[in-house]
Amino acid sequence: MTKYTLILLGAIGVGKGTQAQRLSRHLGIPQIATGDLLRMEGQAGTDLGRRAAEIMNRGELVPDDIIVDMVRGRLLRDDAVRGAVFDGFPRTVPQAEALDGMLKDMDLPTPHVVSIEVPESEIIERLSSRRVCVTCGAVFNVKINPAAIENHKCPKGEARVILRDDDQPETIQQRLTVYRAKTLPMVTHYREKGSFREVSGMGTEDQVFARILIAMDPDLS
Ligand code: AMP
User: Fold this and answer.
1) How many structural domains are present in the chain?
2) Parallel, antiparallel, or unpaired for β 112-117 and 196-200?
3) Is 175 a residue of the active site?
């Protein structure tokens, strides 16, 4: 049984979620997206969900211990025995250190780490035209594909598609500031370990996907 763990790094809005979904299907391992897990808690109306929503809407990070417990619980589910694609996690040095320990305990391999690079001006443009389905989480870009979401409806199930609260312009700026302060130092944690690759996030979804597979292992593409 081949096991994989893959961490997709990169600033907000570089396309980690879209690529993580595809990689999850390609490799047959689940996508673990901490932002999605937190939004699901919010929709379920749990205490954690309410507390997290307030932090997320300010563009700040949810405390490390909450995130690490949530990821541990998710990794212990049966579908993750062969590994996982991490999206939006880890985001701080303590989270990265906690993940190293968890992977060892769970007999999962050292992660491939791929960072998707996109210039900041392009990130702002992409996030302000991003819309998400409130039900299935599908992501659309109103500039690239306006027809797919006519009447603000998701083509996959007719649910509403919305601009995420934290994709409002002021919150985007705050999230980029937090990214530079808290997450960039974590990138150094992996860069120094040698399992780190950078790929350009410009171009089509297919092009970026192919670059990630080659960066992980040319045999996978
Ligand atoms: P994302 O969907 O990955 O852009 O995450 C949306 C928001 O959820 C972030 O701005 C944070 O407030 C919170 N969040 C998601 N993942 C993490 C994480 N690993 N650590 C702390 N906060 C997180």
Assistant:
1) 1
2) parallel
3) yes
Instruction: Give me the sign of the Cα torsion angle 89, 95, 101, 102.
Output: negative
How many C-alpha atoms does 210 have within 13 Å on its Cβ side?
6
Per annotation, catalytic residue among 39, 74, 130, 131: 130
Say what the pLDDT of residue 136 is: 84
By residue range, what is the domain housing residue 44? 4-119+180-220
Quote the pLDDT of residue 33: 97
Q: Give the Å distance between the CA of 219 and the centre of ligand 1.
A: 32
Residue at 33 is within a domain = yes
User: Mean pLDDT, 10 residues at a time, over the chain (221 residues)?
Assistant: 93 93 96 96 95 95 97 97 97 96 95 95 91 86 81 84 90 94 91 87 96 86 66
Sign of torsion over alpha carbons 33, 38, 41, 43: negative
Token pair belonging to 32: 């673990």
Q: Contact 58/174 with Cβ under 8 angstroms?
A: yes
- CATH code for position 87: 3.40.50.300
Q: Give a yes or no: residue 131 inside a domain.
A: no
Minimal-distance CA residue to ligand 1 atom 11:
61
**Residue 50 falls inside a structural domain:** yes
Instruction: Say how far apart CA 201 and CA 116 lie, in whole Å.
Output: 5
> Does residue 82 have an active-site annotation?
no
Residue 130 inside a domain? The answer is: no
